[in-house]
Amino acid sequence: MTDPAASGAGPGGGPEAGPGGGPEAGPGGGRAADRRGADGRGADRGRRAAGVVLARAVGVAAGLVAAYYLIPLEGGRTGAASALLICGLLAVVVILVWEARAITRSALPRLKAVEALATTLALYLVLFASAYYLLERSSPGSFSEPLTKTDALYFTLTTFSTVGFGDITADSQTGRVVTMLQMFGGLMLVGVAARLLAGAVQAGLRRQGREPPPE
Question: What is the dihedral of CA 192, 126, 92, 77, to 10 degrees?
């Protein structure tokens, strides 16, 4: 006859009860439950981080647009628009390089890259809208109609998106040069800048010991 103690049965013939009254869980079941709990907490942290990054990117873009409307832009000569454009483009390059370095050190490089691209793009568009507005103020007739700040931002967006409705056009040589510069810069921003940020993301993942997905 089999000894109940040897077969792991309790006094009543059933499986031995654990401290809580149920069957005692093995070490494998506990580890699986811990892993599921850790995965759930990780997913929650990822969603919160994505929400923070999205809110920050929207906040930066909204702040730049608000500054564009609130800061007085008065230019009595064409040099003001040129100086703003040169200094602004240098700032875009500096911010882009700084953001690329920050991505490689970030714990969430993909989300940081999205924030960096949104910030750089918003600054780039506001910069050219300001230059168009100052150019029209300093040299009336540079465009097919007088530009308000909203008109200048509208023209910038239609040029960047290559829609070009044709209701506002650059008539002066300076206006056309600035417009061509925006077109070229937009191609560089979409191509080179996006590639630079993607490389920074891959470097950040490798730094964390996580291999980036194959292209």
Answer: 120
